[in-house]
Amino acid sequence: MKTILIVDDNQELRDALTEYLGRSEFKVLTACDGEEMWEHLHRTEPHLIILDIMLPGDDGLTLCSQIRKRSNVPIIMLTAVTDEVDRIAGLEIGADDYITKTFSPRELLARIKALLRRTQVPQDDPVAPHQLRFSGWTCDLLKRRLLSPDGEVVQLSGADFNLISLMLDKPNQLLSRDDIARCIWGRDADPFERGIDVQISRLRKHLHDDERTLILTVRNKGYMLASDVVS
After folding, report:
1. Which domains, from first to last, does the chain contain?
2. Residue 37: which H helix or E strand, with range?
3. Which of 35, 55, 225, 229 has CB atoms 3.0–4.6 Å from 167's, for a disulfide?
4. Are 110 and 121 in contact (CB under 8 A)?
5. Which of residues 144 and 166 earns the better pLDDT score?
């Protein structure tokens, strides 16, 4: 049974989601603020966190940033309908997905299941390569981690890892915005979806690609990893 932690100060919303997700065979933990959230995290490691941005005390963006310093647990941010700035900020600091407060429980459930599938650690396959090397970097597919040329482990969110995995699977090939959105979120990109650019920017920072020579932008078409990949 997968465990989901819901962090929201709305009691009715917490109760409704606890009942709905419980019927889908999830174990649900709830917290009304950051303090209660940390109490849960000190005792257990949930499989996914649903985190509201507007919280008393530390807001959701602050909490997301703090979580990312210690864990790559999948995080879905809850945002207000018009708060695009908050949605982008959430992705920039490591949230894996976001959903507006007008969501239906069915839509949220679909997002949860898709995100859990995409962040699941693959089973050990003796035939498949476990480590991929490119431009001095190493990506460990089983441990879901990225190693710098100096051997330093780079902390990746689930969306970060899915994006680099996609690019390593198709090096020197153009990836459309829809290709990327389906990989990291399980859906096509909105025509005005800035989140794709945010994820690319995050990955460039991880790879120290300040000159944008490793991940190329193909204007009006998408992005490309400009590197050979060896196993």
Report:
1. 3-118 (3.40.50.2300), 131-225 (1.10.10.10)
2. helix 34-43
3. 225
4. no
5. 166
